[in-house]
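Task: fold both queries, return tokens.
Query 1:
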Amino acid sequence: MFLKFVLLCAVLASSFAAEVEITAKRFDGDDKSGVSKFSGDVKVVKEGDTILSDTMFVYFDQARKPTRFEAVGNANFVMKQEGGKTYKGKARTITYYPNQKEYLLVGDAFVEYIEEKRKVYGDKIFVNDTTKKATVVGEEGGRPAKFIFFIEDKNGSTKTK
């Protein structure tokens, strides 16, 4: 089992241009299904990006490259973009698609753009690191999507909108 874990880590690291490190209290791998489960204080680190959760499922394609990371339970992330931009967020479930550099946050989702103090809330939030686009959807029949940002008025003070 330890050998499979070492091989999994090697595959994860080789499938990205950067090293990926996953730490957890437990690892369960299934070569047939192509799904690995990490549980207990899970932390995934790749370059400036970090995902934390109670449980993490990693899905692999036939070539043993990860196609999806699914963080469940106390899921949150920090994402660093080019130009020094930092995003942090949380949701009940966070799914990351490494090939597209896309995040999907579902359930009480929240994302904050730290440097500009912009915040979005919704039931579902989609963020694409490549296109720099985001989509926020409110709960159906429930709370709407919410966007909070700061503007300067004419006398230079900052106000929340």
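Query 1 returned. Query 2:
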Amino acid sequence: MPKKEVDVVLVALSTPILVGVYENGKLIEQIESQERSSDALPLIYKDLLQKYDVKTFIYANGPGSFMSIKVAYIFLKSLSILKDIPLKSVDAFYFNGGKPIKAIGKLHFVKIQDKIETQKLDAVEKSAFELPKILQKEDFSEETAPMYGIAAV
């Protein structure tokens, strides 16, 4: 029996890690993990690659946790090369309704029109990342390098 052709989306910027499996642009499976990206991703993707014919990897390339972005990028870029599966990206605001994303202290990443910058915010509504029910493939970029947003401290 042939495997379903799917696209796989990863949001690994905070806990929980979210992985969405999309068939014809529709979410058919969602996986959440409370574990560290470096521990969870190899196991999750091993299962996904056995179960599905993955056509595209997509990930949230930032802004957010430096380490989470770096681990996700290195993992998916390596897998993309090894399996000859295209990698695409989108900024993290795609998955949280455009709400501020914590950087450090009171500093938050905000997206104003198409520009991402940092602002000091005293009170911020807590927002969680969510996988969309439907993917719009034109929303994703071929430019997959991590977007850290601020210099490492």
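Both queries returned. Flag for query 2: The radius of gyration is 15 Å.
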